[in-house]
Design the sequence.
């Protein structure tokens, strides 16, 4: 089963990747590393999760937002390397969580992305990660995630 | 026209790069990648943009702050690689915006840096980017930017 | 004197590295670079510094928290590369400081990590760095630090 088929089993279709909100590109390859721009939980041109986790959104919604960000990271990587089967390993994920005052469960939110990556890539999906809270994110997104992957 | 001449056309003179605020170095090269330390909108030894975008500073001032951070990133890169003409591509820009509560236009602020890089480097200036809001930055700077560039 | 012996002179024992709070790995090597996950000031299974610097914690406590994060980064790197004597250089440190409103001394907090690295590695410990404030961190940690190092 291809990586893209596995992703489809979780209910995600990799269509046209979300357009950057500004004058930059969504993905770049240098050597055998691919860096993504920060991705927010857009789907079908709409932001599905906005507001602060711990106030406007539950932990579970935050997790789903992080998962969708990870899908969008993979989607822009696909646009660069053709097929996600060309990913050797996921190297790093940085997770910014739009956090209500006193919300300190950023790691549980970020697990939405990390767990998903391990489901899709197995051992090769295991990555290093930083998860931090921030007081505001672009267009009031609940989560923003950037990814570094190693390609074959 | 050299990269430095193009930068001069936008009104910036690359003099002595701003000193780090602490015990670290402003730029480092590993392989063919150059990483900068986080740069703030200093010029001539003074911080030109302080406070929170969306409260103390307008969006336009935030954009100018981001542009100046990008200039300072290039300036410290120059100190490492001799001439900015040795830059192959800009790989990544991470933009931290000192954000008032409710301010969610971080991408527009970050465009101050991204647009500038594309004006200077053309296609080779197109980079991936994350822009996030934070509640505080060093010395109350309005913006902090770090950059990764690929050298020839 | 080995790197680990130098670290011991500062009162730190590198035991079992702190477990990730979630489904990711603490360290990964790609090419000759090692990336750590974000580390918090855990020691002996306990979080030693929690709360906001500038309100719950003094600047000096923030510095010590940053130093301990740096020790933990080195500890997880050791778990990957066997001996810290295999570190060629420290490349980059990113420091997220859990910041009270109005606290803008993130660089001084981050110096707790940077100064320590230079004490341990000398010239090879000099790195680029970003230090930013954030409104919340995992489990209310005072500081979170991620590191990139180059190995021999």
Sequence:
């Amino acid at each position: 089963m291809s990586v893209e088929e596995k992703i489809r089993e979780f209910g995600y279709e990799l269509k046209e990747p979300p357009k950057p909100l500004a004058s930059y590109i969504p993905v770049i390859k240098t050597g055998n590393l691919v860096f993504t721009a920060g991705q927010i939980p857009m789907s079908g041109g709409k932001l599905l999760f906005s507001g602060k986790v711990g106030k406007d959104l539950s932990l579970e919604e935050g997790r789903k937002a992080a998962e969708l960000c990870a899908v969008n990271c993979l989607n822009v990587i696909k646009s660069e390397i053709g097929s996600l089967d060309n990913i050797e390993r996921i190297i790093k994920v940085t997770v910014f969580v739009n956090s209500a005052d006193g919300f300190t469960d950023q790691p549980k939110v970020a697990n939405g992305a990390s767990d998903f990556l391990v489901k899709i890539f197995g051992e090769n999906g295991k990555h290093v990660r930083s998860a931090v809270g921030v007081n505001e994110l672009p267009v009031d997104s609940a989560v923003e995630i950037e990814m570094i992957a190693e390609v074959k």
About this structure: Chain B has a mean pLDDT of 95. The interface with chain A takes residues 31-33, 89, 91-93, 97, 99, 101-108, 110-111, 114-115, 118, 126-135, 148, 150 of chain B (CB under 8 Å).
